[in-house]
Amino acid sequence: MSINGLPFKLYKYKGVSDGVLDGLSKGKVWFSHLDKLNDPYENDYDYDDSMFFSNLNNYLKTFPDKGMPIEIQNKIDELKWQKRDDATIIQYLERFSVDGGLRPQLDKIKKIIKNHKSSKAGILSLCENYDNLLMWAYYGDNYAGLCMEFSTEENADVLNNEKFTFKVDYNNCHYNMMDVFPIYSSEFPNKTQDDLEMGICISKIYAHKSTDWSHEKEWRVISDISKQKENPDKGGALMPFPGKLTAIYFGDRATSEAINSVKEAVEMGSYGYEPLYKRAKLRKDSFGIELIDI
After folding, report:
1. Are residues 31 and 155 in the same domain?
2. How far apart are CA 285 and CA 130, in angstroms?
3. What is the arithmetic mean of pLDDT over 233-255?
4. Where does the chain show beta strands of DSSP type E?
5. For residue range 183-202, what is the model confidence (pLDDT) as tens digits?
6. Do 62 and 16 lie in a common domain?
7. 112, part of any domain
8. Alpha-carbon gap, residue 145 to 14, rounded angstroms
9. Is residue 94 domain-shared with residue 186, that is, in the same domain?
10. Which among 62, 80, 106 is the end of a domain?
11. H helices then E strands: how many in the chain?
């Protein structure tokens, strides 16, 4: 299914390293686990869950859809009649819960999210434009690297699929447990791990950043890379291009040796097509980038 607002092209800034050359020679690009990225907030998994233990309505949302057992409802009504506050009623329900209460269930979900972030989900971060001066400085090896251009229309079953590709939402709301895993139920012990992971709100866990990062204009491709890793402890994996690699732009400071190495790696990859090659030249008359043939 196509994605609203998806640009025709998305871009990956990188330095010219052995890893990048290896990927190009195989028609692949690096997907990293979230705990290896440079924003420490992204690796959070211990989401605040206090709202479930201070607000009775929130707590009761965690019960199965089939309804509240009559004996529990009667006890709640009795405690409310006694004018007990929400926290006291919740403590009572937790103490006498037959399945151990909500706390161990929430802890289980947090462990699943942590595992999903650190060993299962791989992230490919892409930018909406090729002429972002800060991105060239931060991720393009201070203008000595390259910028790969991927089509979201050609060979783009991944890039143009809402199951895998998400636009990053920039806001200053630090999400809590109710945001990132809104489907709660005391039936969780009977569900498989895959069932639980399907309930994770992917966009809020993997595509949510502070407004401080908004200049990156980021889109993310999220994929299960656990089977592609060289070993279980690896922090990421090479995955096939998410769309056709239509062009490679070299930074203003890229050396001829680096450019030749990239071209050789692409030739080795035998994609069945050849991307365009251009130099992302720094303008002389104003701040910005202009593309010139090389």
Report:
1. yes
2. 19
3. 95
4. 9-14, 28-32, 121-127, 146-151, 165-167, 169-170, 208-209, 218-224, 236-240, 245-251, 276-282, 289-293
5. 544 444 455 556 556 566 78
6. no
7. no
8. 6
9. no
10. 106
11. 11, 12
Contacts of 248 (CB under 8 A, 6+ apart): 146, 147, 148, 149, 262, 266, 275, 276, 277, 278
Domain carrying residue 61: 51-106
CA distances 107 to 47, 175, 245, Å, are: 10, 17, 42
Check residue 40 and report its DSSP letter.
G
CA nearest neighbour of 166 among 110, 112, 121: 121
Q: What is the pTM of this model?
A: 0.86
Q: Is 21 found in the same domain as 163?
A: yes
Question: Same structural domain for residues 85 and 195?
Answer: no
Tens digit of each residue's pLDDT (9 = 90 or more) over 158-187: 999 988 999 999 999 888 888 887 654 444
Q: Can you name the residues that pair with 146 across neighbouring β-strands?
A: 14, 250
Structure-token pair, residue 195:
């069932």
Domain count, the chain: 2
Let me know whether 152 and 271 are in one domain.
Answer: yes
CA torsion sign for 77, 78, 82, 85 is negative
CB 21 within 8 A of CB 265: yes
Tell me, yes or no, whether 128 lies in a domain: yes
